[in-house]
Specification:
203 residues; alpha/beta; Rossmann fold; seven-stranded mixed beta sheet; two-stranded antiparallel ribbon; 6 helices
């Protein structure tokens, strides 16, 4: 069973989807911590209602955040990290300590439409402007750069002729809520094998 800490910047819909999967025993994990860079994040409020340990980084100096995060992860005995709408780059010392044990979910099919500044509405606007016919969601391992780590799982949604960024975002988010718990369950079952920059899922 994974001891999972979830990092969130916004409202935390993926956090709630993960929590639901845990409650329904579709994900063999325990959410032991929630970290946010915003003290007013609804995700921290949700964590409080669920009696989950919380860490707000909003008032922390940038050079102290790595230390604060590692101390929190040790305190909660975290062994896996899930970024779920977290808009900040993870400090390198945290990436090093949790190498291959940090995942992120991105609202597009990486390696397209990723990188710094590509989040939320910006992603969906870029997708529509490009003229591609499919978008989707990607779960990937996290390294020292935005959206670059090996891909664990992807799922597609169609891009419709009359799509708006909001309509596309809604369909992609539904897929995110499905595949993120599925991808985390692969790690819980120890079925993920990294070969170079490729992830192989063992049966």
């Amino acid at each position: 069973m994974l001891r999972l800490t979830v990092f969130v910047s916004g409202r935390g819909s993926n956090l709630q989807a993960i929590h639901t999967a845990v409650s329904q025993r579709r994900l063999h994990a325990e959410i032991v911590g929630v970290v946010s860079n915003r003290s007013a994040s609804p995700a921290l409020e949700f964590a409080q209602t669920q009696q989950i340990s919380r860490l707000s980084l909003e008032d922390k100096q940038a050079q102290q955040q790595g230390y604060e995060i590692l101390a929190f992860l040790e305190q909660t005995r975290t062994d896996f990290i899930a970024l779920a709408g977290y808009m900040k780059l993870i400090p390198p010392e945290v990436v090093t300590a949790y190498r291959h044990r940090i995942t992120n979910i991105h609202p597009a099919l990486l390696p397209s439409f990723g990188g710094k500044g590509m989040y939320g509405r910006h992603v969906h606007e870029a997708v529509l402007s490009s003229g591609v016919k499919v978008s989707g969601a990607t779960v990937h391992l996290v390294d020292e750069e935005y959206d670059r780590g090996p891909i664990v799982m992807q799922r597609c949604v169609p891009v419709l002729d009359d799509d708006t960024p909001e309509a596309l975002a809604t369909r992609v988010l539904e897929v995110e809520h499905t595949i993120y718990p599925e991808a985390l369950q692969l790690f819980a079952e120890e079925r993920v094998e990294l070969q170079g920059n490729r992830i192989i899922t063992r049966s």
